[in-house]
């Protein structure tokens, strides 16, 4: 190929590259405008040594019971899980008492074929506030309050380049928790006097698209704490986010401990292999032709 042709191709590629780069940056900015990045918080369950703080989970559970449970289900958690190690660590007696405060439908039909209501037992799952999704939507202006059993893991956001690389090395996985904390603190007057696209929506700084069907669910002083922790919205939103994390991943501490053991084993094993290799090949000399 002649050199002017090469030059032409090179400049074309350069122009294309710069153009594509600018377009990508623009897309980035467009999505950034839709969702503002939540501020980062400190979480006890961050990193390879992370674990739950039972006191914090118990406070979060209290908030769930007193506030959120009138709309949000917790369908994959059973009362016996309240006594699980690495979680809220209630005693079995305490878990039994809590279960008995709930009325649940017996999963077994009685002799009339009906499912009688009775006080909850350890083996029962948390009863849902609505019988089905349609009923939940009908009570909430058409919006569905998601089940808390998976929500903390389901809500995350793109941190974009270069943060996602830093997060991989920093082991940061708490974007969902940061988001829940920010969302609960994010209710405010609409910016630039924006009007809701339909009635019944509330302006939230951190909700994607800003208009959320959930009214501000919790404010300062609403839930009483007995352990002297401040009863502020800031504290509530951290505690409920921690509780929701536990609900979505009850075995986090065990998983992290196993990860550490595996890493330790691999490091020792790599060292062993290195010395075995050295001793096996120690007498070997390359053949000279
Ligand atoms: C009166 C009913 C009601 C109560 C009480 C309530 N919520 Fe909600 N919540 C909703 C509805 C409805 C939605 C769906 C909103 C939407 O899709 O616009 C929702 C959505 C959410 C979401 C998901 C937001 C998203 O990104 O999709 C979170 C997180 C949440 N609620 C947390 C809470 C917490 C924490 C509490 C208790 C402190 C609580 N809610 C109490 C009705 C409620």
From TrEMBL:
InterPro entries: Cyt_c-like_dom (IPR009056), Cyt_c-like_dom_sf (IPR036909), Cyt_c1 (IPR002326), Cyt_c1_TM_anchor_C (IPR021157)
Chief subcellular location: membrane
Residue stretches making up the Cytochrome c domain: 55-188
Keywords: Electron transport, Heme, Iron, Membrane, Metal-binding, Respiratory chain, Signal, Transmembrane, Transmembrane helix, Transport
Compositionally biased spans, kind Basic and acidic residues: 104-121
A Pfam family recorded for this sequence: Cytochrom_C1
The UniProt record lists the keyword ATP-binding: no
Transmembrane listed as a keyword: yes
Position of the signal peptide: 1-23
UniProt superkingdom: Bacteria
Transmembrane segment boundaries: 258-276
Region (Disordered) residue spans: 104-131
Localization annotation: Membrane
Family recorded in the similarity comment: Belongs to the cytochrome c family.
PANTHER family: CYTOCHROME C1, CYTOCHROME C1, HEME PROTEIN, MITOCHONDRIAL
Protein's recorded name: Cytochrome c1
Higher taxonomy: Bacteria, Pseudomonadati, Pseudomonadota, Alphaproteobacteria, Hyphomicrobiales
């Amino acid at each position: 190929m002649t050199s002017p042709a090469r030059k032409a191709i090179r400049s074309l590629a350069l122009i294309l590259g710069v153009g594509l780069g600018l377009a990508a940056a623009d897309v980035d900015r467009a999505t950034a405008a839709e969702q503002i990045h939540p501020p980062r918080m400190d979480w006890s369950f961050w990193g390879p040594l992370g674990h739950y703080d039972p006191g914090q989970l118990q406070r979060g559970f209290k908030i769930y019971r007193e506030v959120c449970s009138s709309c949000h289900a917790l369908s994959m958690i059973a009362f016996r899980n309240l006594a699980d190690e690495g979680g809220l660590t209630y005693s079995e007696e305490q878990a039994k008492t809590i279960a008995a405060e709930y009325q649940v439908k017996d999963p077994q039909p009685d002799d009339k074929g009906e499912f009688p209501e009775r006080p909850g037992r350890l083996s029962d799952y948390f009863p849902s506030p609505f019988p089905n999704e349609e009923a939940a939507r009908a009570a909430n202006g058409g919006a569905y309050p998601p089940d808390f059993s998976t929500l903390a893991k389901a809500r995350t956001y793109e941190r974009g380049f270069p943060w996602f690389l830093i997060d991989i090395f920093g082991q940061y996985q708490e974007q969902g928790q940061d988001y829940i904390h920010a969302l609960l603190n994010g209710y405010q007057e609409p910016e630039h006097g924006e009007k809701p696209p339909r009635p019944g929506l509330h302006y939230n700084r951190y909700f994607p698209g800003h208009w959320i069907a959930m009214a501000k669910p919790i404010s300062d002083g609403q839930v009483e704490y007995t352990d002297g922790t401040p009863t502020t919205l800031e504290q509530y939103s951290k505690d409920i986010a921690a509780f929701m994390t536990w609900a979505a991943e009850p075995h986090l501490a065990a998983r992290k401990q196993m990860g550490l053991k595996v890493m330790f084993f691999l490091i020792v094993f790599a060292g062993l292999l290195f010395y075995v290799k050295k001793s096996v090949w120690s007498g070997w000399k390359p053949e000279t032709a």
